């Protein structure tokens, strides 16, 4: 029995080290490069009124209501803001991650309802599931930005 304890400790140590190694080497899904994103949206502004209902989205970019370059997303493709619940908003970069990984191409996805589709590779992404690909060749989700909501203003940022 005394020979079993050292073997069990070694086995547990190997398991812990293996789990640590796997978690450190997991595939990095955020393939779109970082750009500065930091802006607020006032839900009382008529331009953003659609976000007052769950299931709706808006598209923002550098020319949207004077939000400037901080709202343009990667390569000025813009950002999708989707209201998924009463107090939850999802902000996603419009740049297709599949085309970017494939050859560095920067293509903005088009949004129709709760789906976004790349016009080039035809990958489809579901907005309610945080931009997860649902069809097409893409294996990466759309780049997501942090959001917070105080009852009137939605803050979108990546820092």
Concise description?
This protein is 18% helix and 29% strand. It has 159 residues and is an alpha+beta fold. Strand 5 (110-112) and strand 6 (115-117) form a beta hairpin.
Q: Strand arrangement, largest sheet?
A: 1-10-9-4-3-2
Q: How large is the share of residues in beta strands?
A: 25-35%
Would you count the extended β strands for me?
10
CATH topology description: Rieske Iron-sulfur Protein
Rough shape? globular
Radius of gyration computed on alpha carbons:
20 Å
Main sheet characteristics: 6 strands, antiparallel
User: Could you tell me the mean pLDDT?
Assistant: 87
Characterization of the model:
The protein has 159 residues and is α+β, with helices and mostly antiparallel strands. It has one domain (38-157): 3-layer Sandwich (Rieske Iron-sulfur Protein), CATH 2.102.10.10. The chain has helices spanning 4-24, 97-103, and strands at 38-42, 57-60, 79-85, 88-93, 110-112, 115-117, 124-126, 132-135, 144-149, 153-157. Strands 1-10-9-4-3-2 form a 6-stranded antiparallel sheet, with no helix packed on it. It has a 4-stranded antiparallel sheet with strand order 5-6-7-8, with no helix packed on it. Strand 3 and strand 4 form a beta hairpin. Residues 17-28 have low confidence and may be disordered.
């Amino acid at each position: 029995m005394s020979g079993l304890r050292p073997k069990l400790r070694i086995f547990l140590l190997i398991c812990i080290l293996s789990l640590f190694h796997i978690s450190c080497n997991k595939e990095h899904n955020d393939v779109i490069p970082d750009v500065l994103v930091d802006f607020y949206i006032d839900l009382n502004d008529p331009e953003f009124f659609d976000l007052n209902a769950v299931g709706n989205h808006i598209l923002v970019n550098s020319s949207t209501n004077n939000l400037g370059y901080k709202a343009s997303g990667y390569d000025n493709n813009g950002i999708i803001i989707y209201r998924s619940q009463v107090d939850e908003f999802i902000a996603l970069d419009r740049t297709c991650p599949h085309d970017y990984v494939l050859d560095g191409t920067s293509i903005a996805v088009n949004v129709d309802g709760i789906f976004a589709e790349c016009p080039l590779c035809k990958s489809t992404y579901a907005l309610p599931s945080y931009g997860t690909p649902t069809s097409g060749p893409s294996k990466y989700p759309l780049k997501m930005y942090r959001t917070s909501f105080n009852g009137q203003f939605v803050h979108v940022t990546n820092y």
